[in-house]
Write a structure and sequence with these properties.
By secondary structure, this protein is α/β, with parallel strands linked by helices. 44% of the residues lie in helices and 19% in strands. The protein has a 6-stranded parallel sheet, sandwiched between helices. The protein has a 4-stranded parallel sheet with strand order 7-6-8-9. 44% of the residues are buried.
């Protein structure tokens, strides 16, 4: 290729790149803040929801995926999304939502998979949020007590339940209070083990290995879901009754779970993004609470661990893994 032809091709490619860049700049720009990896259920559900609404990433919508860590990392990523002037920030998990709400009072924030947005000050009420945030809450006042109740049915002789929690989560204190209240009602004692990051979680899991628990209740914080494989493996190796918060743990050998579908929450969050892009005001869009929770029991694993699951518990299960 001679110099003249090379310059012509280069100019053409530069023009195309500029045209593509300009076209993308005109599309709605969404920031998605989550601690979960690329294959996370929140992302999968969100993508599904967008497809159902006619959005195709890179064609009529641009998504800036940001994987949040803890504390300052999450906050810096939220600040970066604000500086990039995204149209909407989708925040998965209460810590991510907290970072987004701190970063902006103007850009709409859509919650996905968060606890009680009213209790932590993200909204004035579920019916009328009143601020720049709205979306999907997976919180229920009965969720944690119900998890503990099912676990107690599975292990009625366990007097000490080891409870895994992340105290840095803005909703952690409220969840712990509800769980403690339920424990007193059932006549059991909670041994709370706290992990606020991956390093502390490794220490926590070492504690479980050295001091086998009587039964384990894994909290709903997404930190544990990020490390679901090693959490599930350590708990399984303890060979005790255990309750997990999400179905996703079962792929790594969880005995029992009770909770909402994070994929469904992500799918519903896409609907809020659509409403906001079409002119909806987040302060006036009611926050939706997921009301369907599934009890799942792995019958194969129960047999392997020598744990006798009551027939009544199997009857109440929404899904039994055989």
């Amino acid at each position: 290729m001679d110099r003249k032809s090379f310059l012509a091709v280069s100019l053409f490619l530069w023009f195309c790149a500029g045209a593509i860049g300009a076209a993308l700049a005109d599309l709605p720009h969404i920031g998605f803040l989550t601690p979960l990896p690329e294959s996370g259920p929140d992302r999968e559900g969100f993508r599904q929801g967008l497809r159902e609404l006619g959005y195709v990433e890179g064609k009529n919508i641009v998504i800036d995926w940001r994987r949040a860590g803890t504390g300052q990392v999450s906050q810096s990523l939220a600040d970066e999304l604000v500086k990039s002037k995204v149209s909407v920030i989708v925040a998965s998990g209460t810590p991510a939502a907290d970072a987004a709400m701190r970063a902006t009072a103007i850009i709409p924030v859509v919650f996905a998979n968060i606890g009680d947005p009213v209790a932590v000050g993200f909204a004035a009420s579920l019916a009328r949020p009143g601020r720049n945030g709205t979306g999907v809450s997976i919180d229920s006042t009965e969720l944690y007590p119900k998890r503990l109740e099912f676990l107690h049915e599975l292990a009625p002789k366990a007097r000490r339940i080891t409870y895994l929690v992340n105290s840095s989560n803005p909703i952690a204190a409220r969840m712990s209070e509800e769980t403690e209240r339920a424990a007193r009602t059932l006549g059991v004692r909670l041994q709370t083990l706290d992990a606020r990051n991956g390093r502390e979680l490794d220490t926590l899991l070492q504690t479980l290995k050295k001091n086998p628990p009587e039964a384990v209740l894994v909290g709903g914080d997404l930190l544990f879901l990020v490390h679901k494989r090693k959490v599930a493996v350590v708990v399984r190796n303890a060979r005790v009754a255990a309750m997990f918060p999400y179905e996703d743990y079962h792929e790594h050998g969880a005995l029992m779970s009770y909770g909402p579908s994070m994929r469904e929450a992500g799918r519903l969050a896409a609907g809020y993004v659509d409403k906001i892009l079409k002119g909806g005001n987040p302060s006036e869009l009611p926050i939706q609470q997921i009301s369907r929770f599934e009890l799942i029991i792995d019958k194969r694993l129960a047999h392997e661990l020598g744990i006798d699951v009551p027939r009544e518990l199997f009857a109440r299960a929404d899904k039994v893994i055989k």
